[in-house]
Amino acid sequence: ENREAMLNSKSNRLTEALEEANKLFDGVCRAREAALDAQFLVIASNIGKEKANELHSEMSAFDSTAFAEDLLTFMGINRTEVEETDDSEDVPGGFLPSDAWQTMGEEAPKYFRRAPTFHYMMGSFKSEPPVPKQRIERQKKANRGKAEQAMPAQLKKMEESHQEATEKEVERILRILQTHFENDPNTPISFFDFVIDPNSFAHTVENMFHVSFLIRDGLAKIKLDEDELPIIEPTKPSGRGEEDSRAGARNQVIISLDQREWK
Amino acid sequence: QVSELVQFLLVKDQKKIPIKRSDMKNIIHSGPAYSEILNRAGRILQEVFGLQLVEIGTKRHTYILINNLPRAEGEYLCRAKEKEKMGLLLVILSFIFMKGNSVKDGALWEFLNLLRVYPGKQHRVFGDVRKLVTEEFTRQKYLEITSIPLTDPPEFKYQWGPRAEKETSRKDVLNFVAKIQGKDPTFWASQYSEAEA
């Protein structure tokens, strides 16, 4: 236990302990006590070896306590104030400022040949949430000339993945289509009236894109009317079986629309 | 491949943990080309960045990067946290050297306590100091900790690690101690002669 004390080259405590052990051994008559004695000898010889080591590498006396005090001074300790912490029992008094180790940090790198660490300047791309979009979709009047306006849909935050967003859009458009038909059955909407956004070409293309999902899934269909213009209407949910096999003739249509045409 | 390796080494060096050959295997594959590529990378590091690629330790094919440029005056460009850690490290290395190149853990912590640094207590600057000293500094090879046989409870001795040997010198450290204590380095005769050797 008192290893450090015994190691001190000035102390004879090791010798004293050995002598005491010797005396005690005279009184030993049981194996267990002899074993303890042997254990003690092992420890004692270890300590002895360490003491010898310390003698051998006994550098010129280095006073670590003084070194510590000088370090604290260097770090800016204020010895006139007493630090109000609970660990000031066996610690030399004084207030160590919070930048103490920063002070040390300014001095230390001078003694190291340390390679500066390499960091990319800008870092990698950060993905930002898309700016919230305002979507206004307008539906032109049907042949009756009734004005219908779709509610402007506002996307507060695009948290879902693109796929989900598309699905939601598709759903929304389906609902608009269905709502129109509820109010005005038997009057298919002109396809172009439905998808074209007079204010935005890109938006028009998007609408067409979403509508194509509806067609693909059989939720809406496009036919040509008397004027050979395409019209769109939602498919009736009933009568799927046979109708499907008949109306299952799905045709692929490629519509090309460029900005001039759109205008 | 050489430039890939150079970039890899630079980035991997950020944590100051030695780089093993196995780490590099995605970039250069074993074979006769390996040493050539490594040599060329070393040359580029030296000529372009002034850094030296050094093999260290008893395990072969383990490398660190050190700074080969003469020390410049002025501020050292480095994060404050890193500098503070270097401060603590310098103090520890000085203590070890001045005490004969090897100290027991008890003695080291007794000394650090004097500086208000305690192994069991969260430090305002260093956090878990024990972890910093026994894990981070040793993984970076600044310190080497070995257990002392036949001690119960187990005790450890602390010595300079191979990175410390390369990045600093006993002479520099002695100068540091001398500066702090306001004495001439020759004041400690045997340390001085060892440092000059």
Automatic annotation (TrEMBL), chain A:
Keyword Cytoplasm appears in the UniProt entry: no
Residues covered by the Nse4/EID protein Nse3/MAGE-binding domain: 37-89
GO BP annotations listed: DNA recombination; DNA repair
Major place of residence: nucleus
Keyword field: Chromosome, DNA damage, DNA recombination, DNA repair, Nucleus, Telomere
Domain of life: Eukaryota
Name assigned to this protein: Non-structural maintenance of chromosomes element 4
Stored Pfam families: Nse4-Nse3_bdg, Nse4_C
Chain ranges of the Non-structural maintenance of chromosome element 4 C-terminal domain: 188-263
Keyword presence, Nucleus: yes
Primary role: Component of the SMC5-SMC6 complex, that promotes sister chromatid alignment after DNA damage and facilitates double-stranded DNA breaks (DSBs) repair via homologous recombination between sister chromatids.
Gene (UniProt): Nsmce4a
TrEMBL record, chain B:
One GO CC annotation: nucleus
Pfam families xrefs: MAGE
Limits of the MAGE domain: 1-195
InterPro entries associated with the record: MAGE, MAGE_WH1, MAGE_WH2, MHD_dom
Name this protein carries in UniProt: NSE3 protein
SMART domains referenced in this protein's UniProt entry, alphabetically: MAGE
